[in-house]
């Protein structure tokens, strides 16, 4: 059984993230979306942890092979905790690729766990949580940035 973890701090979970997780389900048995709860970063987020988990659970309500959990340790420690055999990372650009490859090499040396880097699909390559956050701040329509099953109403606190 292959279990991938997809670590990150999604605020909110976007269509780019959704496409990476959906494609990963083609070659793994389960995906654990691991949301970091680093206190310093948590203060910068628009949505509290509970809201982020709620949005992701709603996004994948139809898919029992996707779980979401919070973690406050190193990615490789969390991967061991959930018995993950793969760390899955979504990347949007070549710059992301270079950085993530360096991190993947370090994780492999430290833990023996491989990392799979998946580019977001081209039409979603520049859709990040930051873009959605900025659009929400200016009260624009964000529906095209959200995955299926998630509405603008779900984002309201």
Structure at a glance:
By secondary structure, the chain is α/β, with parallel strands linked by helices. It has helices at residues 15-24, 39-42, 49-59, 75-81, 94-111, 129-137, 152-155, and strands spanning 3-8, 30-36, 66-71, 86-91, 114-119.
- CATH superfamily membership: HUPs
List the total number of helices: 7
Shape: globular
**Biggest pleated-sheet summary:** 5 strands, parallel
Strand order of the largest sheet: 3-2-1-4-5
What Rg, in angstroms, do the CA atoms define? 15 Å
Oligomer: single chain
CATH architecture: 3-Layer(aba) Sandwich
Number of strands: 5
- End-to-end CA span: 38 Å
| Spans where pLDDT lies below 50 across 5 or more residues | none
């Amino acid at each position: 059984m292959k279990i991938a973890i997809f670590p990150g701090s999604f605020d909110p979970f976007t269509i780019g993230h959704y496409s990476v997780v959906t494609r990963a389900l083609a070659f793994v048995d389960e995906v654990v979306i691991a949301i970091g709860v680093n206190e310093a970063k948590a203060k910068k987020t628009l949505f509290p942890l509970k809201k982020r988990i709620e949005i992701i659970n709603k996004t994948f309500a139809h898919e029992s092979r996707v779980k979401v959990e919070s973690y406050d340790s190193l990615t490789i420690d969390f991967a061991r905790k959930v018995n993950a055999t793969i760390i899955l990372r979504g990347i949007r650009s070549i710059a992301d690729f270079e950085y993530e490859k360096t991190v993947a090499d370090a994780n492999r040396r430290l833990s023996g766990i491989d990392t799979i880097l998946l580019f977001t699909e081209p039409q979603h390559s520049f859709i990040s949580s930051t873009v959605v956050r900025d659009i929400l701040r200016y009260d624009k329509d964000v529906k095209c940035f959200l995955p299926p099953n998630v509405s603008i109403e779900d984002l309201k606190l």
